[in-house]
Design a protein that fits this description.
CATH topology of the largest domain: D-Maltodextrin-Binding Protein, domain 2
Number of helices: 12
Order of helices and strands: HEHEHEHHEEEHEHEHEEHHEHH
Largest sheet: 6 strands, mixed
Shape: globular
Helix content: 40-55%
Structural class: alpha/beta
Strand content: 15-25%
CATH class of the largest domain: Alpha Beta
Length: 337
Amino acid sequence: MYSGTRFIHKLTALALLLPVASLTTLSSYAADKVMNLGWATPLESDNGVIAEKFKELVELYSEGSIEVKLRCCAQISTEDDAFKAMQLGTVDAYLISQNNISPHWPLMDVFVLPYIFQNEDHLVAIATGEVGEQVRVRMLEDTGVNLLTFGGPSYRDFFNSKRPVETMADMDGLKVRVPKNEVMLQTFEAFGAEPVPLAWSETPTALQTGTIDGGDNGTNVIQEMKFYEFAPYLTILDHFAGFSPLLASGRFMDGLDDSQRDAVSRAAQEAGQYHSDYTRAKIETIRDWLVAEGGMKVTRPDTTPFIEAATRVQESFAAERGDDFGNLVKSVRAVAQ
């Protein structure tokens, strides 16, 4: 039996050992892999919604062996540079608009073509069907980047600081920011505007200083970035419909075991469906908010002349870009029939 003094000394010695023992125990429960997932918009944005759901599901389905760290606001890369960084393996995962994928993988421009999607149902059918699967396989083969999910549908709404757009003639002379994407540039030229290619990081300042008159972004982004404070005219054209593609580097995915890859794939599929339901329910709500709370004046022009101009853009690119591009355009159109 220990005396009181000897017992206290024994407890003290044990206490000194506890931190080491605790660290050893905790390390056995630490995640095997860490995925840093980035995007360019705020944490509370629509990209943040799919990122949060993806994180929750990956960590659940991998039983904690993968930790997903969320890196909003271009912390780990700009959207313009993220695809190349994933090819190099310096970025694990990123949410990139399809127009910022196509400079690195031109076939993605099929999904950027104006009015290529008839409506949200058409877009979702592409993302979740055979065409979407073909695109995922081809992108991985060509670039080494994994398209984990297309995410939810959205529209790019037009905004400007000069005047309401009632007809296509009202686009004449407007300096419109476009991403550095040839399809989008030619589309706004066809609409009669003066497109100004700018990186996303330069856009808010250019709008505030009047370097540009306006631009188009996802409806939610206009709200999240408070563009309504500088450009009070909102125009609903539904000219560009798109996704929120979640991509991962080959280096990261190749470092997972089979069960972890299955967990990531399952999580991405379910997060994509969750995000699709979320965004489809929200588009008109945000448009209403931009008018009621953001003070924007909204117009909904007759889109017939815009569609006619867009069809010429579609045909031009289908003819110029080769068989793979033209065949993918046909496949997208066929799903709508």
